[in-house]
Amino acid sequence: MKSSKPETPVATTARVPLRLRAEVERVLLTRNQIARRLRAMARDIQQDFKNREMVVVSLLNGTVMFLADLVRCLSLPLRLDFIGVSSYGAGTQSGELVFTKDLRLDVRGRDVLLVDDILDTGNTMARVLEKLGALGPRRIRVCVLLDKRSRRIQPVQPDYVGFEIPDVFVVGYGLDFAERYRNLPFVGVLHPHVYTAKQTSSVQNPHMTSSQPAKSASQTD
Ligand code: 5GP
Ligand code: MG
Q1: Rounded to the nearest whole angstrom, what is the distance from the C-alpha of residue 123 to the centroid of ligand 1?
Q2: Is-contact 82 59, C-beta < 8 A?
Q3: Fewer CB in a 10 Å sphere around the end CB: N or C, the chain?
Q4: Cα(143) to centroid(ligand 1), Å
Q5: How many CA atoms lie within 13 Å of 193's alpha carbon, on the beta-carbon side?
Q6: Which one, of 48, 46, 160, lies nearest residue 114 by Cα?
Q7: Tens digit of pLDDT for each residue in 91-107?
């Protein structure tokens, strides 16, 4: 297997829509940059899954846009299923993961493509891999749109990565902060004042750096 290298965001002249400028600092990835990269990722995936029927397992909710665009670039037979997972910060034990939806398809002996929006510490992916691995798939390949490699704690090695990004908190294209911004057609950097303002009244998660907002207890990914 030889996948194309992840891209790093290049400077763009694209501007944040006026109505969002107080909250979103800058555009990190435009819809065109994302679309182009997705086509290359889909080519890599097709090569690796040739002649196999795959089960695409996607983590809710952040993958909605990425998944919808990616699978439409794949001309392979595939089946689609979802796992719901939420991480809880302030209010409950920090970093605690809760599964909110289980798989319905049987993946035993199957080739699985596991899709997530962003790989950060790797805690979520490590837990999901453990859970999925116990179901006996033939193989699992990991595909993420974004990778913050510098933040990794768990030794998770993704097989397909769209973009390697710096340690900034991003929203848009499915990614949220407190359930907002998912509908932006681009990936943008959130102004730190948005999450520092929200956090002053709640317990600060000590594991988060200043560039990482603590998640509210009700946040789903
Ligand atoms: P990890 O368990 O790898 O630390 O975190 C993975 C999850 O945290 C992601 O699936 C995503 O939901 C959330 N996350 C991590 N970094 C960001 C970010 O920059 N923006 C948003 N919106 N979510 C993030
Ligand atoms: Mg997520």
Answers
A1: 10
A2: yes
A3: N
A4: 14
A5: 5
A6: 160
A7: 434 568 999 999 999 99
